Amino acid sequence: MRGRALRFSPVALLLLAGCTGTQSALDPAGKDASVLADLFWVLLIGATVLWLAVNGLFFYVTRIEPRSLSRRLAETLVIGGGIVFPFFLLSGLLAYALSIMPDQRLEGTGVQIRVTGEQWWWRVEYIPEPGAEPIVAANEIRLPVDHRTEIKLGADKFIHSFWIPALAGKMDMFPGRETRLAVEPTKVGVYRGQCAEFCGEAHALMAFQAVVMEQDEFAAWLEKERQDAVMPASDLARQGEAIFLEEGCGACHTVRGTEARGPAGPDLTHVGSRLSLGAAVLPSDREAFADWVRHTKRIKPGVKMPPYVHLSDEKLSALSAYLEGLK
Ligand SMILES: [Cu+2]
Q1: Distance from the CA of 286 to the center of ligand 1, in angstroms?
Q2: From the CA of 173, how far away is ligand 1's center (Å)?
Q3: From the first residue on, what is the mean pLDDT of each consecutive set of 10 residues in the chain (327 residues)?
Q4: For the chain, where do the domains classified as CATH 2.60.40.420 start and end?
Q5: Which of 34, 125, 141, 214 is most buried by a 10 A CB count?
Q6: Cα of 241 to ligand 1 centre, how many Å?
Q7: How far is it, in rounded angstroms, from Cα 266 to Cα 68?
Q8: CATH number 2.60.40.420 is the correct assignment for the domain at 112-225
């Protein structure tokens, strides 16, 4: 028994490890996610009580008191245990679950965020106030803490699903139709979001970071995000900028303040300040930039950006210096 318990424990620990961390619905850091985590526990306890009652009875009549029952008792058991008890238990659970729904639908105020699911990355636009020019970013979402923010969701060609388990429930994203979700983070930190609807080859590699910031830091960050790209700071980065334009990267990518105005790929104006690359598949450092540009297809099968295998090491390092400097 002892031996078995010991053999079992590493597995149990591994399973429990899935319950915490930056992408866990059971380790909530947002108001909606906390309510959903409570719902999960209540339903789990409800299901456990029901399961124990049914199996306890089964055990009792087969092992402890195995005799035939009077017709009356049998009928009482069927009606009481099979209809009345589950009716009240399930109705109670249903009423509880319905009672939390209105709060999940509350709208957000302040800055709105529009997120579009692309193949296989996230187009992100911040709309400071209704009608204002959107501030375009990608593959990362920043949110103010203790504030309810409205997120409008859409998709380019395929259905995706937007899910930051630590902050809120998931919401599908459809081409040609807008869905909405509001999130209210309660803890500053970096959380992980993931596409939760199979959308093609690179579906599993379509993630992003959700960065929850203090409210004043968020306002300052947004103001910075609104600015055009900074000038390249070194000769190497200046060369990189020239290579960027020469190689036609600007046909798909926008770097505001330069000639690069392409709409098909992620906006790169401030790509150097993001925490990750390629929808959270690589870290954001100089090596990763080089790796990404040269080996897109290997890093992300199905990706809609060609691999630039022909670039020399020198050109690639200049290009990476430029991209990394786009803070
Ligand atoms: Cu997907």
Answers
A1: 27
A2: 10
A3: 50 64 91 95 90 90 86 90 88 92 91 97 96 95 98 97 96 97 97 96 96 98 96 96 96 96 97 96 95 96 95 96 96
A4: 112-225, 235-325
A5: 141
A6: 32
A7: 71
A8: yes
